[in-house]
Amino acid sequence: MRAQETKIGITSTVPVELVLAAGLTPVDLNNRFINDPDPAGLVERAEGLGLPRTLCAWIKGIYAWALGHPEVATILAVTQGDCSNTQALMELLTLAGRRVIGFGYPHDRDEASLRASLAGLARQLGTDLAQGEQVRRSLLPLRRDLDRLDELTWTTGQVSGAENHLWLVSASDFDGDPAAFHTRLSGFLAEVQARAKRAPVPRLGLLGVPPIMSDLHRTVVELGAEIVFNEVPRQFAMLPPESQGQDEDLATQYLRYTYPYDVFHRIADIARQSERRALAGLIHYTQTFCFRQAQDLILRARLPLPILTLEGDSSGPLDARTRLRLEAFLERLA
Ligand code: SF4
């Protein structure tokens, strides 16, 4: 098999250990879309091909990026636990000639069902759970270093909220090469040790899907605050359990992952991290036309901290109105 034939596109965080165990190179389509030199152009291209204005920009961007990269011939799509639009995306990519494999997280978080899903995925990828387990263990030092990076964000402030976000979202596919990613991460951690320690206030948490806007973290800093908890990217990075030595395997690791199951597991994690990190407030980012917008009501009902809900539609910098709302929210917290 030529190198390019080993690339497999992923639509969300998947059990990447199985992908790697099968000798494949994961390519997170979300990261490729948003880091493209012209993400807005990709969305326009998808609309030009007939996708509706009233469809989330991430789906359109992923679709257009995938069309432009036929070398990613297989797509592993999360059919349950990520996005209500994924089925249509799978069908569009099938029409475009891609091989599409589905993987579902059981909504009820049932362990036996998850174990069956993992075994089914391993079979489809041409590997097995034992090999996936070996990869899981080999990734632990890397995941521990990501945990260290996360800790340096909220304990000493030596890692910024923007850097934290970027490293943690990139851990969904390790930029395709876990060893090279780990080398870069080790270099980054060595570099930040030399930075002065600081205690940013007010300390904020960012909830929800990764923002499509390019400068949310930077704007928060400009306005005198810092995001020290990136909820969903932290979940994507699958950091080791808080209690050291806790016994895990692939299935229990993916049961601990809060994002694909019901919102109440997310809320328990957010509440724990808000207290641990002494957060003053939360920003809930919602994407225009995303079904997850409806969860804002539940987050507000269950979380005791002040919450600002920000909605984003297209890539690029924050608009003036959103910046003003952020400013007013931070004034309230001061
Ligand atoms: S933002 Fe929402 S609708 Fe868009 S891809 Fe993500 S989960 Fe799906």
Give a written overview of the molecule.
By secondary structure, the chain is an alpha/beta fold. It has a domain at 3-129: Rossmann fold (3-Layer(aba) Sandwich). Helix content is 49%, strand content 13%. It contains 15 helices and eight strands. The protein has helices at 16-21, 29-34, 39-48, 57-67, 86-95, 111-125, 129-154, 161-170, 178-192, 216-222, 231-236, 250-256, 263-276, 296-302, 320-333, and strands at 7-10, 25-28, 74-80, 99-104, 203-207, 226-230, 281-287, 307-312. The strands form two sheets. A four-stranded parallel sheet has the order 2-1-3-4. A four-stranded parallel sheet has the order 6-5-7-8, with helices on both faces. Helix 1 (16-21) links the parallel strand 1 (7-10) and strand 2. Helix 3 packs across helix 4, helix 6 packs across helix 12 and helix 7 (129-154) packs antiparallel against helix 8 (161-170). It starts with 6 loop residues before the first strand and ends with a helix.
